[in-house]
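During the no-cost extension, the postdoctoral fellow (Dr. R.K.) reprocessed legacy sequence entries with the updated structure-token encoder. One reprocessed record is reproduced below for audit purposes.
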Amino acid sequence: MAERGARLLVFFTSLTVLRFGGADKGSDIQGFTPFRFSVEPIDTLAVRGLPAVLNCSAISNAPVRVEWKKDGTFLNLVADDRKRQLADGSLVISTVVHSKHNKPDEGVYQCVATIDNLGTISSRTARLTVAGLPRFLSQPEGVSVRMGGTEMLSCEVTEELVPFTRWERDGRAVELDGRVIQLPSGALVISNASQTDGGLYRCTIDGLGPPKNTEEAELQVSADSGVEEKLETLQGPVAVAKVVGESVLLPCVMKGYPVPVIRWTFNDRPIDEGHERFAVIGGGSLQIVNLTEEDAGIYVCQADSGNMTSEIQAELTVHVPPRFLTRPSNTYAQESMDIIFECDVTGSPPPTVKWMKDGDTVIPSDYFRIVKQHNLQVLGLVKSDEGFYQCLAENDAGNVQASAQLIILALDVALPSTVPSLTDATTDHVASSPAERSGPTPSAPRDVVASLVSTRFIKLTWRLPAEPHGENITYSVFYSLDGTNRERVENTSGPGEMQVTIQNLVPDTKYTFRVVASNTNGPGESSAPLTVATQLEVQVPGPAPNLQVVSVSATSVALSWERPATGNGDIQTYKLFYSEKGQDSEQDMDVTGLSYTMTGLKKFTEYSFRVVAYNKHGPGVSTEDVTVRTLSDVPSAPPQNLTLEVLNSTSIMVRWQPPPPGTLNGELTGYKLRYRKGLRRADAIEISTSQLFQLIDGLEKGKVYTVRVSATTVNGTGPTTEWIAAETFENDLDESQVPGVPSSLHVRPLVNRIVVSWTPPENQDILVRGYKIGYGIGSPHAHTVTLDYKQRFYSIDNLDPSSHYVITLKAFNNMGEGIPIYNSATTRPQSAPDPTPMLPPVGVQATVLSHDTVKVSWADNSLAKNQKITDSRYYTIRWKTNIPANTKFKTANTTSLFHTVTALKPNTLYEFSVMVTKSRRSSTWSMTAHGTTLESIPSSAPKDVTVISKEGNPRIININWQPPTEANGKITGYIIYYSTDVNAEVHDWVVEPVVGNRLTHQIQGLTLDTAYYFKIQARNSKGMGPMSDAVQFRTPKAEPSDKMSSDQGLQVKPGHPTLPEHGIGSNMDKPGITGSQENHILVIVVIVSVGVFTIIAVVVGAVLCTRRSNSHQKKKRAACKSNTGSHKYKSSSKDLKPPDLWIHHERLELKPMDKSPDPNPVMTETPIPRTAQDPAVEPAHQRRGHEVEESVSTMAGRRGVRSKMMMPFDSQPPQPVISAHPIHSLDHLHHHHHHYHLPPRGYLHHQISLRAPATPNTYLDRAPSAESVRNQPPAPEPPVAPSQPITTAELQKTEAVIKEEEPPSINPLTAHVRPAHPLKSFAVPAVTVSAHNPPTYETALPSTPLLAQPAPGVKTASIGTLNRARAPMAVTVPSAPDQSETSKMLDMTYETDELSEEMAHLEGLMKDLNAITTG
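Re-encoded structure tokens follow.
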């Protein structure tokens, strides 16, 4: 039993371990905490001296601590004995304190809930308003109303007191119904009056302490007399704003007889009064209940009394509180990820949105961005970003809030399968299930380097981790600003991709990068941090220093400047920009020197100038604007509106206006007036004055006088007006008696003034020198006003309301005052403050300061003449782009008469308008002013770049594009960059400028079957924008020439591209040379060459075979009789047979190729470097290299061109192999290091320095594509045989045989071996390509260093071309022979003198061959 019990215990223990101990890390993910407000505070109207409550309650499964904020500051409830917090979180104010100068309780309150060590959320805000002191703005007055008529009793109170206002009649409360209503202002309206409505009425404020009453006013109801009464408006509708769901009463109180009929229209359509939500009450007022958004619009009250009509309109605005369409959702994420919290709201007016994290406002920065208008994007997450995020939306109708929790998981914890807030840059990190993340993870990526560093992007490349632990390896690049711990992440485009380009960086800034590899088990180790600084963005010229502008005359200025201190390349031209002050348009002209004199300017006008230097990259940085005013001059136009008024028989009054604006040409100093008697030429009298009028007296009666006026400046007198004539009176008006009584006197009473108008006496022959007005309460003699004889109306101001004034008017002259005329008027009673809005600002001007700044200025007619603001008014500026589809305004407030608007879009037309607000009165919007911001450099690249080959000519391409989305100005041109290496530096790309706004360009002279990369950059007058992404295009291949290959007996090696029919430098397309002639010459050359080669081979072979020992002769003779075999390739191309001779052109070295019985001799194509010891042949190679380069591409010097070299070696036993590993992509061959094993020192000297005969194992050539490199079979790797050291004498003998270029030395292999010359030809030197047109094989051998590192048992080599990645080629190095074999090889050598004679003879043969082929 004990044993059985032990077994059961072990079994249950195992189950427990499997159940709990083996749980995946994904099951340990922290859950989201429920945390929200169940009750939030609302707007509250409190009463002074009474308690007030603001409700708030938060719920969660964790303890919650609630606090309160007032006006953004936390309340200290401990120090305030009037405020306390209830258990549920509500705030209670025991006694509200409120006075004129002390309002401690009024303000905006917010409830804040916190869970310790988790986060904080804030409620919506609520405004606490305290009702003011009970007081009446006006008292009701006694009135009389007809039976069935309508009357209104005023009771003006402040807005917050209206809910506490009620009416009493004869001490009893007035019952309100559809006939008797109370208006929103507090006034009482009685319609369809009856005798029961008569009585004493008073208005009462109740509920704010002791009731406060107005004085009693009697309402008398009189019988209907039938006398017609004019239509009078007692109260009309005014503009009002309400919230959806509320009710509104639009008053329309009309008085008159017959009783007016009132109708309402809404947006020019009659209102159906039978609708359940619409009702006309109180004799004509419109009541709308349960408002909807569709109820907003223009309402018109139309009254018709039979003989008169009246129409008053008002606008009803319906506000909709904010409402969430999309709320932020709870999110899981990991560090360095980018996430987005979505928040979509609606409302009217459109709500403003702000974000908060744990109760603090989120300020937008480089890592916290507002995207898509309302969403919050957090870049490069760190652990401290964890918490609660809230979206708060607010408009005039209210505010709402919604929250979401962010939890940041460890990197080894899998994210849930659905993470909606992750951005595209981080979705690759989301694991499908926790079970997949088990097992080893990759080690750190190796050799992380910045292969391309630009001003705004950095390209990183790296190598596979040493321990990838899988195949589908993905990579994540984490980067941050140097010195910060907030990282961002960028993922590679697919598995296996080992490069990434980080965009949108800041120029001249340091960044830190690290790379992490991930497999199916999760992310592995991070690479070591790599710090790289972006380049300084200096491509275009800097500003031209010391810009000087001097006025030379009234119409010209002289400008001078200096050459910019910064910039790349020579300055091509300068562009001079100038504009007249106050004008939006800017003009420009090109200047080649460092100075310029500009003519044709306006006189005495202020101009601004700036200079921009241009180089090959486009416009540089503009100078600051320099302002100068041209010199003054005499006026160019006469004064305007010259008028003559004959006052009497001896005097004339002359009046005029200044010359037109822009014609004074200087500061006005005065006017010159000249007058003469008669119409003909006579002596004129000149009068100088600075005023706009002049009295000419002492004239003769009944004479004609002519007058003209001119304006003067400090420079002189301008042109004069035409002569204007006037005739004095024959006789003056009669002044022997006083004037008669004025023919009429009209008065129009208002509240505080009376407007008086009159007509002159009927007898016009009596002179009237003026009028006198007398007025007063009950007597016209209290005040007297004397007026001019021309005046016909006057406003008597500062009168008392509801007062009866008597007014008298009489004319007077030198004889005395005439008979007065009387009238009387009663001023209107005092009413509420004038509801009319304030006067809008005038003279709004928009002055453009820069590409994103406009200064808006204006004047306020309601201020004093000095425009000094002494009260609490403020101005609201609104602006928007002048696009019909754009109806969204932006606004700003200011207390001055100007405002600078910033953050505008460049080269965009904006409209601006201004509104003034004082207390609760606001003006309408002013007239709009327009301004177009200045241009700025393009902020986006050209788009939709496409490359198309020209039909019929594959060397020409057409490149097309579309202008950039954000041109920020008029595009003045484009710059096309193209290269065969996408990773080349910008200054190594070929540049093609495009002038104007053309969207297509043709590029010629490209190389066939070559990949090109194209980028385009737009430019405007301010500079160049960013480059577009590189677009790849491979030029087409030419059709192969099968006939030419068969004629020459040449076969293309498998894996190598077929060559064009017409090689480089071909004359096939030139006139005068035909294909038959070319083939004939070619056949002759081939026959002669083969014959010479055969003779040389026989002679050399015979000499070498006779001088060897018997044993060696037998061995060598057997080798000579053998037939040379060839490798068998899997390609479809035919095998390439090696030629019988190897001619070393540079050393004139001739060696026989013995036909060995070995069936697998190989041929190696390899570059042999030239040293400085070849002065005789250097010029010929240089010339041939230049010819080839010019014909290959228009990019001279971009790529070296090399010919092939065929090097046969005698058959040897199996040798160790240097093999190159195939790389998956040509674009990734920037930093591959291949490993090889260093052989013994003696062997290296024998095999490398002396280049002893060896048996190569492969054929070197340019890999045409990545696929061909992949298809090459790997070479075997047998062990290297050890070698014994050899003597110096033996080495010298070996050198005599081999004729090696290098001096005898021991040179171990290094990591970098650079060929000495870009072109190495080992073909027949005498054959000229251009004369005989053989098919030319274009091959490019490497000019970049061979990268190598020691590694046991492996030899690798990587060969690449200049500025272009190349596939590594397999190379074979023979193994070191043993001591006995080496000694035997040295015994076969010749004496130095004998070999020299043979070489001299061979040199003569080569010269003869060269003469034959070139002749």
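The longest strand covers residues 309-326. The mean pLDDT is 75. The remaining legacy entries will be reprocessed before the final report is submitted.
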